[in-house]
Amino acid sequence: RREPVTITVTGAAGQIGYALLFRVAAGAMFGPEVPVRLRLLEVPDALRAAEGVILELEDCAFPLLAGVEVFDDANRALDGASVAVLVGARPRTAGMERSDLLAANAGIFAPQGRAINDHAAEDIRVVVVGNPANTNALIAQSHAPDVPAARFSALTRLDHNRALAQVAKRVGIDPGHVRRLSIWGNHSSTQYPDLSNVTIDGVAGHPRLADETWIRDEFIPRVAGRGAEIIEVRGRSSAASAANAIIDHVRDWAGGTAPDDWTSAALLSRGEYGVPEGIFCSFPVVSAGQDWQVVPDLELDAGARKSIAASVDEILWERQVVQARGLL
Ligand code: NAX
């Protein structure tokens, strides 16, 4: 048996936390050989609810769960963390401006970034889930100057998985046959799900995926609007599918992506594909078990460039709001 991996989850008493923690404790992130130690972070008002989740984790008698503790202090929760899943965020409430939402979240992600800088393990990997995820990731990363920027990411794997599922349905196969799909831009309704490189069983150019009208009027709005659709149908926002995407993201980052495939994650841009430096943007990415790498040299036609630019503009606007308020 190997040494336990320390995983910090914030917002642990929330609905994503409830869908995530039991699977992580069962070994879904690091496999059946690797014990996990969970450190949970919650706001004081939700500590008791988080303690209830811990009681249930205990009652599962998971053989891989080497320990679980809850804190209301980010420095302690992130102490020794090799993985930080930052889920807890300030939700948008009625009458709240988007700019106020950005500012409220900066107040959460700045101290968490500092806590990661000062207390996390050498091999820390951070995935920001709480919305607005791209900008929250930028705030956390910018408060962790001693941690390589490549250790920070924001989650767009749920968008990626949603898109894989829609493609599989369209073609009439299982999602496991679909590869090389890309989510570009912001984790928001402006994202650009890109089918131009998709292969089905290794073959590009499937005729059912070449229908521009379907892509524009059905596929893209379906994927970009899926979060809203889930709320409308289920009555609550996505939780189990978000937890599943978090597990896929960390598993592929630490364990590596499949040789003939890639996935999507939002990373700090270094200017790839003309995306301005210094914002978190979703790209097609691979991992060999170390850092994420943006897939190089993909062809983007004029329409794709325009769609990506529109989403990038939204990320730039978000950055400008937090910058103007002195939060970066
Ligand atoms: P919930 O409201 O069920 O849970 C959030 C939890 O975070 C609450 O228990 C709250 O007490 C806690 N929290 C708030 N501030 C905190 C802080 N400063 N430190 C620690 N904990 C704190 O929301 P849930 O449905 O779990 O969603 C959480 C976040 O994920 C939301 O921001 C949501 O928008 C975002 N999502 C992001 C997705 C993505 O793909 N990137 C998809 C799913 C989800 O919508």
From TrEMBL:
EC top class, as a word: oxidoreductase
Domain Lactate/malate dehydrogenase C-terminal: 156-315
Any one of the GO BP annotations: tricarboxylic acid cycle
Protein name: Malate dehydrogenase
PANTHER family, A to Z: MALATE DEHYDROGENASE
Cross-referenced Pfam families: Ldh_1_C (PF02866), Ldh_1_N (PF00056)
Enzyme Commission numbers on file: 1.1.1.37
Function: Catalyzes the reversible oxidation of malate to oxaloacetate.
SUPFAM superfamilies with a match to the protein in the record: LDH C-terminal domain-like (SSF56327), NAD(P)-binding Rossmann-fold domains (SSF51735)
Alphabetized HAMAP family for the sequence: Malate_dehydrog_2 (MF_01517)
Coiled-coil stretches noted in the UniProt entry, renumbered to this chain: none
Gene Ontology terms, MF aspect: L-malate dehydrogenase (NAD+) activity
Statement: the UniProt record of this protein carries the keyword Acyltransferase: no
Gene3D superfamilies on file: Lactate dehydrogenase/glycoside hydrolase, family 4, C-terminal (3.90.110.10), NAD(P)-binding Rossmann-like Domain (3.40.50.720)
Catalysed reaction, written as an equation: (S)-malate + NAD(+) = oxaloacetate + NADH + H(+)
Binding-site positions, NAD(+): 11-17, 105, 112, 129-131
Segments forming domain Lactate/malate dehydrogenase N-terminal: 6-145
Entry binding sites for substrate: 92, 98, 131, 162
Family membership: Belongs to the LDH/MDH superfamily. MDH type 2 family.
Record: active site: 187 (proton acceptor)
